[in-house]
Amino acid sequence: MKPLSLRETAYETILEWIVSGRIPEGAVTSEIALAGSLDMSRTPVRAALQQLETEGFVRIAPKHGVHIVPSSAGRVGDLLETWIALVLFAYELLKRTKPAEMAEAASSFGRRMEAFAGETPDTINKLESEMWQQWVSLGQNEEIIRLYQSTSAKLRWHRNDRRWRPPHRSETEPCLQDLLSAVVSGSVNAVPHFFSYLHILKKTWN
Predict the structure, then answer these.
(1) How many beta carbons lie within 10 A of that of residue 73, not counting itself?
(2) Is 3 helix (H, G, I), strand (E, B) or coil?
(3) Among 53, 88, 117, 123, which residue's Cα sits nearest to residue 196?
(4) In the 8-state DSSP scheme, what is residue 205?
(5) CA 129, CA 143: separation in Å to the nearest integer?
(6) CA distance 29 to 152
């Protein structure tokens, strides 16, 4: 594998710091401070920040620093709409091109969900994230995969497991199982189940 350039390393590291909360939402930092933390010159850091600004993670204010963009309710709603659209795109594509692989993936995750019934919200949230990542990756559309990964990162998916906590878990679990069962069946229209799932995501997102 080709090693990452300094710009790519700076981008991946700063993004991980934002998504993990090491740099909190709403915080203000600077190109100089980030370059110092990364032990890099400012040139690759500046290029990384410009990319992060384009993707909506930061806002660069000349002479006022780098602002970490908060996940406002409106912004999260838009991101969730985009996220479900990407998953639906993958579903429609796979239904035509790889129905057996899609059904097997859904069946496998359905079984794992049942086995994980007693696990912590954080654990089952990671499984859920893994499921959708694999689902979209089955389509082998690099542009869609990149957009999906970017959208999931902007949503801070791994930090939002409220739907897997009481009292919401009793609604989320059967909804997702119904969705997976519809996909496995192939003869059932799964689209309404996707929108039921989106409704729960919107209702429970932090």
Answers:
(1) 11
(2) coil
(3) 88
(4) -
(5) 19
(6) 23
